[in-house]
Amino acid sequence: MTITDAVTTGLGDRWREGARPQTTDEWLARAQEVADILAVDAVERDRANQTPHAEVQLLKDSGLVTLLGPRAHGGAGETWDTAYRVIRTVARGDGSIGQVLGYHYLWAWAARLVGTEEQIAAVEELYTSNALVFGGAVNPRDSDLVIREDGDDLVFSGRKSFSTGGQISDLTVLEGVLEGSDTHIFAIVPTAQDGIVFADDWDSLGQRLTESGSVEIRDVRVPWAAAAGFVDRVFRPLTYNTLNVPTIQLVFANFYLGIAQGALETASAYTRTRTRPWPYGGDDKQHATDEWYLLEGYGELASTLWADEALLDAVGGEISAVLHAPREELTPRRRGEIAVRVAAGKLRVVDDGLTVATKVYELTGARASASSVGLDIFWRNLRTHSLHDPIAYKKREVGTFVLKNEVPEPTWYT
């Protein structure tokens, strides 16, 4: 079943009318259903490079967009360790849509990261009750949006060269600096308004369906009361506020792992059905699945990804525990220890994932390089997003912790 089939034949209706997942395992099974649908025509959709409206509708129909939302408003009430595994599962079917979902989870949690209790309650009711999808115009490498005061309003203006979610989002997270100060302010606004103008210029090697192009913010007005975390126009900082970066970095690592797992699954299916044994090695086999070098190769790649999965699951449990704990309890030291563990997981899966996405060609054979097979999508997707920030700095953070027992200071990338 393709995505078009799933949307037009009422699969969403069947999901809504049927038994709703109630346990973590059932939500993971729902994620696998979505991944299976995405995988059917992932290559064709990647080639077409169209705005993924149907894919996002699939995420909404499945209930996955409200996985972290409160049960009181129709959400699943699941925790971040489940969300990470859902992201990974969806990415096995389509890395782009795994990224879209992961970024949505991060921005849906933005109110909890920096907002007041009243803002958290309002945002979570709004997005959960209506199954709204978040995007974010927050790219630290660009100049900050400029915010000017106009009475009881804040007015955001500027440009961001990346804005994942773009035209497929219902809500957009804005971040800027108040004019004449060094005060950073986050706000959540409706995406569909004249002041948010997407350039539709995302043209990258991979992750092509993430709607990550540039955006112009033209005098977008936000009431001062909607400035996240501000009370009487004053922000009260907590260490918890800085968890946005390790949280999203682990989102990255999980959809990277999902992409690598997808590559291995696709390659192994090809080898079982289409790869021919090598007839010139002096140890002729009847079937490719009996070739010793293929058995060794798949064994090595699978064991590597199993180890990466174990590490990411462990780190996901650690960060999930603090994300769901009272915000005031998080210390700078604990935050830093988690950031180091996230860095270790990310650097491991980037190196291992790129190896897998390359080595599968050696295990499937020359004919698997045909464009129609589509093995290239995995390497292109992983290579593209793994350049988000230099992996060398992740290695340095881990090394500094090991040798000096020092944790990294919070930055926009750590």
TrEMBL record:
Keywords: Flavoprotein, Oxidoreductase
Residue ranges of domain Acyl-CoA dehydrogenase C-terminal in the record: 250-388
One Pfam family cited in the UniProt record for this chain: Acyl-CoA_dh_2
Signal peptide bounds: none
GO MF annotations in UniProt: 3-methylbutanoyl-CoA dehydrogenase activity; flavin adenine dinucleotide binding
Gene Ontology biological-process annotations: L-leucine catabolic process
Top-rank taxon, per record: Bacteria
Protein name, as recorded: Dibenzothiophene desulfurization enzyme C
